[in-house]
Amino acid sequence: MLRRCLPSPRITTRRVRLLSTTASDRLVGYSPMAQGGPVNTNSTYIPTEKDVTTAGGVWAPTSAKRDALAEFKTAAAGKSLDEQATKEEKLDLYLVDGMVLIGKCTDGSLLNLSDPADKMNAVETWWMKEKVTEDTLLYQVQWKERLTDLSKKMDALLASMPADRCLRDIRDYMDAQDTLTDEDKKQETPLGERAFPLMTGLDGEELTQQKVTEENLEQAISRFRLIMAQEAAKMLIERWDHLTTPSDHDVDRAAVQGIDLTKQDKVLSHLQMQLVLESFIQGDCASRVESLWGMFNKEGDGLLDEDKMNMVCELAIEPVGKALERLHDESLAASPARKVLEEFSATPPSMGWREGRKDTAIKKNLKKMFRTTCKYHFRDEVEVNHRLRCIYAWANKKHQDNKIESVHVEEQGLTGRKRYVELKPKISLEEFREVQRIHFTHLDRVAQEFLKSYREDILIKQGKGRRRSEFYRESALFLTVVAIADFIITSL
């Protein structure tokens, strides 16, 4: 979490007041930062990471995960944690690496897909047939019916891309960029041409196996995109009230402007809903934020208040996590957790009762670990709430000249009393992006963030297992030596 460092007792009250008035909008007032080093108090200046550290504030100053990884790396004696993993443990790491490649292709890149793209475009064609000539407003019943029909269309497309076929060899997916030399990396090769499998088959079957695996990779990426769009549709159905209920800032502004929000129908834009779903099925992380921003911007001025800005980021992250959970479960179900690919070809090998039970237990633990990662990573490790609060505070908002407007509003009724209202400035997408690219880059690689954290959890679990085994060995050796010494002493 962001740490608040209290002022030194030697600083006078006047000095503390002076710092608060000159740097409140930059570091001290809106964010739990500490003062200490020099801070640029220019009203148009956005603090850098160095400024944040200089001021005494850091993102997530304590992390049990990072401490555990550092401890295991120190005890590795020059070896990486991947090198210390056994052959079976590496299969779990390979699984995550395959999912990382899929996530990388959906976060910021687009593969040139052939047949899978045609299947995904079928949803687009269906949308176009249903669209009207001009944008309409969707009421709650229409909204749910529309998204329910869309989810059924996606179920049919997912059935045409069986998970057991395209995800069976997910442990062999890897990015060739990781194995290229510096000279090769200078050549900008499209990601679709750089993605290839780690070959584990026979040399004579290499070309055929690579072709099949690349087709499976395309199918897997398309399947993941469809799952994301489906999860986004479910999220929009579940969040209808949140999307249509005016925020506290909306209520205050309506009171100032004399607008009665109770008489307004709860509707959403049909076109904006289409753009949101299209961004999940075809776009990258940036396009998802942009489409959600447009959906919340009912006034059409491109400005949102702080609450809606936070909700945009939340809705851009949540469907990706849910989709990754489904992809992870399908990947585990497609092949055994502890069988290497070369040990079977087209169909998974048959396992006995004992092996099957062990395989089920391993998959259950992996699923539980991944769900925990998706639930807590952005909240605890990334500190998304604090980052968003600082982004809003540090952004150079032109609306209201980046100032809070204080007004008094007459309350309805016979009392004639006035209510004090503070109208905070709104923020545009460009102003949000300006700070987000510095302090919240995780939003541009959501899937990779989830999977990176999951991989670290696996490495920590494997490190604890090795340490526990070493402890058992040392304990057994100690007891053996003590028993032998005791036997020798008693026999004298």
From TrEMBL:
<protein>
    <submittedName>
        <fullName>Uncharacterized protein</fullName>
    </submittedName>
</protein>
